[in-house]
Amino acid sequence: MVYDWFNRQASDDVSTEKVLEEKPEGSEEVSSDSSNNQEESSSINQEESSLEWARSAYARLKAQQAQQKTSQPSVEIDSASETALAANVQAEFSAQSSSFEAGGSLLEQAALQRQVRQEELEEKVEEVSPQLAQQSQFLETSPEPRLGEFDETFAWSAEVLAAQGRKPEKISLEEIDWLGRLRRGLEKTRQGFVKGLLENLGDDPLTPEVLDDLETLLLRADAGVEATDQVLDALRRRMNEEVVDPAEGLRFLKQQLCNLLEAPIQDTGTDLLAPERGRLNIWLFVGVNGVGKTTTLGKLANLAVRSGYTALIAAADTFRAAAVEQVKVWGARSGVPVIANSTANADPAAVVFDAIGAARSKSTDLVLVDTAGRLQTKHNLMEELQKVRRIIDRLAPEARVESLLILDASQGQNGLRQAMAFAQAAALTGVVITKLDGTSRGGVALAVASEARLPIRFIGAGEGIRDLRPFNSFEFVEALLANY
Ligand SMILES: Nc1nc2c(ncn2[C@@H]2O[C@H](COP(=O)(O)OP(=O)(O)OP(=O)(O)O)[C@@H](O)[C@H]2O)c(=O)[nH]1
């Protein structure tokens, strides 16, 4: 099944009959905990129905997995992107993937087609050296997420999906897997924020003292003054109207945080940033040194292929010699061609020029442009970026261009200054926040949204190829304030 991550939907559904009667493994422990307290209030009932939803979703996923196991060849052949991915891997690293070989002649044909296309591009595309190919074999490939136990992480992830109005039969293992990663990734920020918050909330109604503590916690998580003020003002207004109990306080707080994060997204009129099919899409990645531009681009190239799009990488970071090699490794991991110029200090605009030409001739959906890291205070480097942007606009007026700033969450408020400076020079259309896993400053997402007024489009919460996904404010806030 192809899961289009950019649009958050599966392209086809695997029917799973009879699954509702199935009992998920390990569900007893969870259900017996809550069924002991039947006289409890409606919140317990709610908890029960969440668990019911989670159990039903789990049973369906389990059935899907079993079904895929028994009919593996046909499922794989049906799936266009899996076939393309398999073909790429076969063409480039034929020693690998014995499982794909079992797929038979259709896969071989796809591999052959891919190889012909690959050869056509050869004039422009940098070759993956045998050394590089060997190197990439050692990197994590892209194993399918596996359905684990019916545990608390599954139940939480299911609850988050259910709260967004999703149906148990419409959720994917991909989403469950990502939510678990996101929650783990936000552990450090959550530790500082939630522990303090929940301890202060206690069982009593909200007081002005609790709000003072909340103010400190938000500022400490790098949410910034503006976002903090907005949230506290809203809470104070609410407390003036009525007595607010802790559960309602928490719900209201989550709502406020979501509103803050959503405002710039709604302003763009585009909830989810997805490549537009049938049109050239060019995504430019900019930012200061070492924030994760190349890694983000590599993860997105993989996500694009997995989601059924064709992609191409423009290695326009011609400043750092290793950067071209690095994107080639990422390209090889996902079977995405890389356009590069191995001349020392080549003009990045020339690489972009070649990439647009190659993309046009192959009707590629998405061109991902890597750029060199630069300090926002270096005027000449910011001008170089403007030149790249101008070239894109001039050469591909028909393209849908996104200019994405990569921000390292651990840089906290400094990231906000970067956002302000790059917004001007690179005509930013959005932000990707990386390294949320290594920091307690995940609140910077709130500052970016409220002060730079830029939509957050993707978030990275780990170094793995699956640790970057489209941003969803509801899921982010739930993971940030998860009470576990
Ligand atoms: N923990 C963690 N590490 C990350 C994440 N994203 C990127 N990194 C790591 O950050 C380091 C720098 O990443 P790069 O992609 O090389 O950064 P860059 O912005 O392209 O660097 P320059 O080209 O030098 O400007 C690498 O070690 C990545 O593995 C993330 O979400 N979490």
In words, what does this structure look like?
- The structure is a single chain.
- This protein is an alpha/beta fold and 484 residues long.
- It has 3 domains: 20-30 and 43-185, no CATH class; 204-268, Four Helix Bundle (Hemerythrin (Met), subunit A); 281-480, Rossmann fold.
- It has 20 helices and 10 strands.
- The chain has helices spanning 27-35, 42-70, 72-78, 80-92, 98-101, 105-121, 130-138, 152-162, 173-185, 187-201, 208-220, 225-241, 246-268, 293-306, 321-334, 348-362, 379-395, 413-425, 444-452, 473-480; strands at residues 3-4, 9-10, 281-286, 311-316, 338-339, 366-371, 400-408, 430-434, 456-460, 468-470.
- Strands 5-4-6-3-7-8-9-10 form an 8-stranded mixed β-sheet, with helices on both faces.
- Helix 4 packs across helix 6.
- The two termini are 32 Å apart.
- The structure holds guanosine-5'-triphosphate.
- Guanosine-5'-triphosphate binds at residues 287, 289-295, 317, 320, 323, 373, 434-435, 437-438, 460-463, 467.
Task: Write a brief caption for the model.
The chain is of the alpha/beta class and 484 residues long. The protein has helices at 27-35, 42-70, 72-78, 80-92, 98-101, 105-121, 130-138, 152-162, 173-185, 187-201, 208-220, 225-241, 246-268, 293-306, 321-334, 348-362, 379-395, 413-425, 444-452, 473-480; strands at residues 3-4, 9-10, 281-286, 311-316, 338-339, 366-371, 400-408, 430-434, 456-460, 468-470.
What is the tally of beta strands?
10
Bound molecules: guanosine-5'-triphosphate
Report the CATH architecture of the largest domain: 3-Layer(aba) Sandwich
* Fourth-level CATH superfamily of the largest domain: P-loop containing nucleotide triphosphate hydrolases
Q: What is the radius of gyration computed over CA atoms, rounded to a whole number of angstroms?
A: 24 Å
Question: What is the CATH first-level class name of the largest domain?
Answer: Alpha Beta
- Count of individual domains: 3
Shape: globular
- Spell out the helices and strands N to C: EEHHHHHHHHHHHHHEHEHEHEHEHEHEEH
Question: What integer is the average pLDDT?
Answer: 79
The rounded distance between the terminal residues' Cα atoms is: 32 Å
